[in-house]
Amino acid sequence: MKHIKISFLFLTLIFTLGCTKKIDVGDFDSKRWIADRQGCNGDRVEMINDVIKIKENLLGLYQKSVIKVLGKPEGEELYERSQTYWWYYLDPSGECANASENPRKLTIRYTALGIANQVDIE
Fold first, then answer.
1. Is 17 in a helix, a strand, or coil?
2. In which residue ranges of the chain is pLDDT below 70?
3. Which of 54, 55, 98, 104 could form a disulfide bond with 90, CB atoms 3.0-4.6 angstroms apart?
């Protein structure tokens, strides 16, 4: 019985690790991005070209993996059929002293399973 439990745990571990996409964002500076909450410091505006380079790499990642790269989202909206939209401000948001009138956002749409299937800059 003990052998069956160990085998089951081993197979579960292999399945879990095998079904997650590797996070490949090259030299993207996640620490700098995450430190600039709401885009208040202006670092994210300077990083727009870097974000454009990694957009395709974000597709297929689970929400937890995206949080490792971009941090927690600044906004979230539940959409139809349990899809979710997350967004991160590029320009200073309304919460910043130097707020932009219409700040641009990086938006990510997730499937009901929490997999990124659309990444846009609006």
1. helix
2. 1-21
3. 104
